[in-house]
Design a protein that fits this description.
Strand content: under 5%
CATH class: Mainly Alpha
Protein name: BIN3 protein
Largest sheet: none
GO cellular component, one term: actin cytoskeleton
CATH architecture: Up-down Bundle
Structural class: mainly alpha
Shape: rod-shaped
Helix content: over 70%
Main location: cytoplasm
Pfam families: BAR (PF03114)
Radius of gyration: 37 Å
GO molecular function: lipid binding
């Protein structure tokens, strides 16, 4: 979700995964030579494979350690990132619903005039609708 917001984090995870794949590939190569018969050429290839593996292993361990240290810090700091937006949303909702409550309260006070029966209200509404239909800007359907 946050890859577009925090691209450096996404890239660090991808680099770690690439290093892990390389490490696994070289580790399997070393294991393959260790399983073979111990002859001169095999021992030379085993030594060479171990030498290739060592820097890749160190690189992977460094990247892995860095991510293990920084990811918890990142996840704990995400609250600081979203908190202002969430607070603004809540404040906007409070203002909106407060205004809507006032408007509906005023409308209710206008509509609920005491002493009118349902028939009188219906006649009044029909009269207002007739006035609206009589306007030249209203098209007949």
């Amino acid at each position: 979700r946050f890859s577009s917001v925090f691209p450096s984090l996404n890239m660090a995870v991808k680099r770690r995964e690439q290093t892990l794949q390389e490490y696994k590939r070289l580790q399997s190569k070393v294991e393959k030579y260790e399983e073979k018969e111990r002859t001169g050429p095999v021992l030379a290839k085993l030594h060479q494979a171990r030498e290739e593996l060592r820097p890749v292993k160190e690189d992977f361990e460094a990247k892995n350690k860095q991510l293990l240290e920084e990811m918890p810090k990142f996840y704990s700091s995400r609250i600081d990132y979203f908190k202002p937006s969430f607070e603004s949303l809540v404040r906007a909702q409070v203002v909106y619903y407060t205004e809507m409550h006032k408007i509906f309260g005023d409308l209710t006070a206008q509509i609920d005039r005491p002493g009118l029966s349902d028939e009188q209200r219906e006649r009044e509404n029909d009269a207002k609708l007739s006035e609206l239909r009589a306007l030249s800007i209203v098209a007949d359907d």
